[in-house]
Write a structure and sequence with these properties.
single chain; 5-stranded antiparallel sheet
Length: about 200
Amino acid sequence: MAKMMGPRFKLCRSLGVNVVGHPKAMDRAKQGTSRDARKLSEYGIQLLEKQRLRAYYGVLEKQFTRYVDKAFRAGSNPGPIILTSLETRLDNMVYRMGFARSIRQARQMVNHGHFLVNGKKVDRPSYAIHEGDTISLKEKSRSSKIFSENLEDCNFVLPYIEVDKDNFTGTLIRRPAREELPIEINEQLIIEFYSR
């Protein structure tokens, strides 16, 4: 399975935003480099924003383009559609619910078959979670310390997700509104990039 690899903190610094959620990711960026002062063209700004969004969700170029194409076909305002589609991927929901410390860890857990969606095993990270779907940890996996530790340490409180830590389950109670998404992104720049 193809996935985004490489140094995470270096990626954060080059994109200028903490896309991995680690508290130390941007530490060295505070020192400042000559690259920080670079002037970007309009195209460069749009490209950077697209790369930031891809990095937030750990999605490769080809797959990201499919999300964009689908959003453009779906309606007149594709920006929020792209964001919602990425936010409601199974790997991202596992991360947002607190089962994993990072999107990479969440993807690995999903690939290894630790989760059920509405009682059925799903091991595809890109699986689309819909309103009312319940994600639960498999019975056999509940004895693993990593899941309970991650749930305890989780600091996400999102109004569109309901988590039952005692039963190792989480539910997408409704579609997330644009302003509720915990990412720093200007999706209009991405729309302009693909509208060229």
